[in-house]
Each structure stands twice: as C-alpha cells, then as structure tokens.
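Entry for magnesium ion complex. Fields follow.
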Amino acid sequence: MAKKTVRDVELKGKKVLVRVDFNVPLKDGEISDENRIVQALPTIKYILEQGGRAILFSHLGRIKEAKDLEKNSLSVVAKRLSELLNQEVKFIPETRGKKLEEAVSALNNGEILMFENTRFEDLDGKKESKNDPELGKYWASLGDVFVNDAFGTAHREHASNVGVASNIKETVAGFLLEKEINFIGGALENPERPFVAILGGAKVSDKIEVIKNLLKVADRVLIGGGMAYTFFKAMGYEIGTSLLEAYKVDLAKELLELSKGKICLGDDIVTGKGFDPETEKNVRTVDQIPADEMGMDIGPRTAEKFDSIIKDAKTVVWNGPLGVFEFPRFADGTRHIAQSLVEIKDQATTIIGGGDSAAAVIQFGLEDGFTHISTGGGASLEYLEGKLLPGIECVDNK
Ligand code: ADP
Ligand code: MG
C-alpha cells in the first residue's frame, strides 16, 4: 500500500512534529559518526523551505537510571544539526512541560526546535518504549501534522512514533522512511526479476525468518557466512570446527528440500585453524574440510559461482557478510561479492540491509556503488522477514 509522504501535506504555517533517528554513536560526549544527522537533512530542509515550523525529536541510547540522562542528552546533536543547517536549532532540555509548549508557540514559519531525548521518559515506567498512551497523546498535542522519518525504530511501537501517529490527524513519511519503503518494500512486493537474495552473517537462528521469507519471493537465494555450515552439515558434509547450530540442522534440511534448487551454497571455503585474525588460511572444497579447521569465508570457486547468478539479476537484496570480514585475510569473499554488485549497478536495483553488511561495504569504500543501503539494522531485518513494521503501518495510506 502506498504511503503518504511529506510531499502530500500542507506544511506552511503548520507545527510539524518530526520523528527523526538521531541515535548517533557518542564517544566522550562527541558525535563519532554523524551519518544519521546528515541522512535526515533532506526532510528537515524540505519542511523548513515549505514554511513549516519543525519540532524535532528522537531517542538516543538507553535510559535505565538517572546517571544515563546526562550522557544521552540530545543537546550535542542539536548543536551539530544547527551547524549543518546553518540555522539556529533551539534546544529544549525537556520532554514535556511549559517551557517546551511556550517554545513551540513561539516558533515562526521556517524555524526549528528540538526537544530532549524521548527515552528520558523511560526513567519513569518506560513511557516512551512501552508506548504509554498519555505520552503519545501529549506529544501529538504539540503539533498539527506528524512526519515520521525514523526507519531505525520502525520495528518498535513507541510513544514517539505509533503513539503520536494514533493521536494526530495526519501522519506522513519523511524522505528517508520513504526510501526504505520504496526499496526494501518494493523488492519484497514487486521485484524486477530475476531477484537474487544473498544471505550471510553469523547464525542461522538469527536469520531463519529472513531465509524463509526471501525463499518465498526471490528466484535464487545464495547462502554464505557462518550460517552456511549448518546447511553443509545438513547436506552430509563434515564441517570441522566451523560454526554449527546442531539444533538447526533439521530445519536446514527441510529448507533445502522445500526450496527445490533455489538455494545455492558454495563448493569451496576458506578455512582457519582458529577464530583468529592471524590464523593460517587454506582453501578447501566442502567435501574435504579437515577436522581441525573452521570455515571463515566463501572460497574463490564459490565467489565465481555466485557471480554467474548475480550477473543476470535485476534485483538483489543482500543481508549478512559472507565471511569474517573484520579479519582482513577473510574479507575477500565479502569484498568480491560487494564488487560484483557494484558492477551490475546500472542494470539492477541493489539493496543492502543489516548493520554489519553496511559496515562491510563502508569498510571497502564501496558505499556509493549500491542503489540503497538501509539505515536500520534491526528494522531492515524485520522488514526482510516480511513483518509489518509499526512505524510504517502508522503512516497514512495514500
Ligand atoms: P548483519 O548485521 O549484516 O545482519 P550479522 O549480524 O548476521 O549481519 O552477521 C555478521 C557477522 O557474521 C560478522 O561479524 C561476521 O564476522 C560473522 N561471520 C560471517 N561469516 C562467518 C563465519 N564463517 N564464521 C563465523 N562468523 C562469521
Ligand atoms: Mg549484525
């Protein structure tokens, strides 16, 4: 179902509530990666240009006890945002009350304020994270229209997304949320074919629902990473000391049978003698994995085999590194496949979901070579599982 976006509402003179994802990493009180702020700029600028009065809010970190408050204040983010926008961003160090309400009333068209970390409300009974009905209603009362642009929390039903949406007349998606819906949602609902899914990462148990859902919609599912070994075991191979989830072997067997040739596993792997960046590296065919070695990456023949499938794809969704890419000598498989996707960029829609997968392509310096890199780790995973995300569901349909 198509969702309304910020383009579909009148913003001029309106008090526009904007839920952004400013959950940035902080080191010694400084922002160590401002990507999330930069990513939110198009939506914010658009609202201000249209003459909206922007009221921004976000969570930051986790708040369990009083000592978490100071180090998770959004004030440092407001300051940085102000620099990036080259415009004053008034910061209100409260999540409710008179000071906030007066600041909202004082806003002029094209002006912006931001209030304190929504999770400060978690200190007293997890009001934000449990979507306390009174809290969502209160925040909604501060504005005329709600723009949700926080994909990173779209898999959560919080007061600052669903709570606000259920108490306000209009809820629309910001540009960032729109992009995620168009690319991930689009691939799952109506992909151009052939649609190839590439799955890796550490564990089968983390990705069962993703595998099952992508088996439903994709034409081919290529499996690498740590979870491949449970599949190799299910095929009857000895896998040495590779990562094994013994209790998932039956499930892997079942998926292999159900998938009728859709699943593609490799023929060779790169092994180490231990989980160690300096360990001796060997290429082994999957039927000859020594008892004292563990699979750390896909092998060169597997990379070629995957390439031959990828090269014709029109849609690719990739979730999960194909090897232990954090260790340089076991990063080749992941880099190779990243490169293969870069090569088909002009003919295919290529989408990367998953926090570590995104980190891997950024580590390789290839981040500009894909159609879309999802900004939400957990949210993109649940989206790929085929779940309805509350933060998307609460946006008005067109
Ligand atoms: P994402 O965050 O992209 O969804 P995951 O969290 O599922 O990905 O998996 C990422 C992790 O999987 C990485 O830390 C990587 O080292 C690990 N991994 C990949 N291949 C292997 C392997 N063969 N053995 C053990 N761990 C692996
Ligand atoms: Mg991960």
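NOTE: Residues 354-356 surround magnesium ion (ligand 2) (CB under 6 Å).
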